[in-house]
Each structure stands twice: as C-alpha cells, then as structure tokens.
Amino acid sequence: MHQTFDAVLGINLLHANQQGADHNRAHFDKWGITCFNMMSSPGAGKTALLERTLAALTNELKIAVIEGDMTTDLDAERLRKYNVPVIAINTGRSCHLDSKMVAGGIHQLEHEYNPSDFDLVLVENVGNLVCPAEFEVGEHAKVALLSITEGEDKPLKYPIMFQEADCLLITKTDLAPYLDVDISRIEANVRQINPDVEIIRVSTKADEGLEVWFNWVRTQVLKPQQNSLSTAAILNVVHIH
Question: GO biological process: any one (predicted)?
C-alpha cells in the first residue's frame, strides 16, 4: 500500500531515533549503568518523585539525572540541591526528548565524570502524555506517572505510554478523599492496556508508597549484563559527537 510522505517521514524519524537509542543503551551497558525514562503529563509529580528518590537512595546508589524541559532549568535546579550531577537539556519547541538529545547529555556526563562510577541515570522527560513514549532514549525501563487528578479514563484515551511502561506510579493519592475518582478504576483501565505493568500508588506529600517505589528501583538497578560483542558492534557503527 502506498504511504503518504508524512507517514514515511515518521517511520524514518522513528527508525533513526531507535538507532540512536540503541547506541545510547550500549554506552550505558558498557559502563554498567541502568537508565530509567521518567514520563508523564505536566504536573503529575515527576520532579517531586525524583527529589524524594534522590534523598532516599543517594547514600546507596550513585545517581545522575538528565533533565528535559522545553525552556527553563527550574526542575534541574531543584534536583541539584541533592548534590548529584544534573544535566539540563532544553528542547525548545519539541514536546519530548529524543535519543540524539540524550546522547548530548551522555557526552557531557562522560566529559565531566567517570561514567563507570554511576549505577543509575534518571532521564526526566518533557511533560507530555503522548510523544515521549514513542521516542526511546536508550533506557532500560520506562516509568510512567499518572496523577489521580487527571481522571480515570486517561489510560484508555492515551494508551501508548501505558502500553510501553514497565512501571506506573499513580501519584497524589493523598487527594483521593477530595476528588470524585476511583483509583481502582484507574488501575483496571491500565490493566486493559498493559496487564503486566508494575503499578504503585504513591504520594510524595503523605509518604505513601514511596518505600515500595524505592524497592522497585533497587531491584532494577542491577549492573546490566553486558554483551561485549553486540555493544562493541553498536559503538563502532555510531559515535556520539
């Protein structure tokens, strides 16, 4: 079937991005780093969750952050207070990070630090419920956040992010008594899209579910089992400049 120019262009962009993501992941594997891609709508609580995560885990894990935002470094400044490397990337008009942008962050990390010293890189993506899920950045796991204030139907209306997520954090659960929302219904809608996703209810304000999240992070941050042949092949094909 003949495809429109826009369709072909979209396929080519995703293909090129995937090549870059595979290359980024090869670097992470080479250094023994686990990478999470943190995704959500604006205001779902990504930065607040990262603040609590850094406060709780930096005594046991060496963590760096790649912080994506359209125009400011406000979130990056919040996270720098925890004395971890935070590399800010402004995307301009782009509504998501892509693998090339994150490659720039990796290059900066490699230039300023010894990347083999790190256990975990947290990529905070631009606040958007659609585009970030389609553009891999080299992550080993996708972590999605959904605030209960967004409504029960969002997993069904915007399914891609929930299909792709390895872990879903349902956030701001402390607000449930004040809202006409059924958290169990949110979970059921997510399960229709992705039956196997890990779902964790959290509130950074009320300290609900955070230890469950921290334990999930700990289980994921195992030094990636490096396939030296495939890693070397990818690194020889594409180079980060």
Answer: protein maturation
